[in-house]
Amino acid sequence: MLFRSIGIGVLLLLASPVWGCDACGCSMSPSYAALMPSLGGHFVGFWWQHQHYRTFADPAFDAGARPQDEYFNTLEIRGRWEIHPRLQATVMLPYAYHLRQDANGPRTVSGLGDVTGLLSYTFFDNSDSLQQKVRHRVVAGIGGKAPTGAFQQPAANEVVNPNFQVGTGSWDALFNLNYTARSGRSGLLLDATYRLNGAGENGYQFGNRFAGLLSLFRVEQIGGVSVMPNLGLYYEQADWDIENGYYRTYTGGEAWLANAGAEVFWQRYNLGVTYSLPLQQDWNTGLVEARSRVALHLNYFF
After folding, report:
1. Burial degree of 43 (CB within 10 A; 0-12, 13-18, 19+)
2. Residue 226 CB partners (closer than 8 Å, separation 6+)
3. Which residue has the higher pLDDT, 131 or 238?
């Protein structure tokens, strides 16, 4: 049975852009969390994410302006190479397409995003042991993001512009810690990722980011197909951005989101979908309102 022959892990590769106006765009990452099997070997896949945000004008500059709807779309090519059974390297190549609807009509930006790499090491794993009632897996990762995507310096009175682009303009460091426990067909996942952002050549620096995930999952076997529904609680937090040594107002914040999704495994293929909805949020001192998120991915293991 597939569930017994593999361990269940997570691929949480936060790197290139993801939140909007400090909560999206390129401030966090278009990458998203997904429960993945720790199948031996390598994989290549396509990962797509869509996010919707509503932004409001700074009342000090334009109190009568109407809110703007922003849609962030990212398509990634992800590849993982197993250097050693306990050591894996993953690379993400994103392409971003963002759309903003305002009184002047639609505005779009698109292009190659910031390339990200992550090196993960499994410190403990007894997930294949049938003698243990509860099996555990602990993985830690370290990585970085290169400023391959375009970034334009924001104007002083613009709230949304810093993130409405495809790159951050900086070299960033990533740190990840993941714990998985399972008993029988059910399991629990805890994941934490911290992103340490550098400053770009133009003096703009996005605030450091933290993201945490708690997810419950269960595996069901339907013929030759394994289906894994999951429910989770996701938390993300961002510090204030810094521009030329000074904190930039109306940046930073935090949010709690509810996740629901499913993973399907068939032979060497994996198809997954995740839907997220904000439960509580405070972005950019209330000037940014996160809406729903949808994510899809398709992987091939070899």
Report:
1. buried
2. 2, 3, 219, 220, 264, 265, 266
3. 238
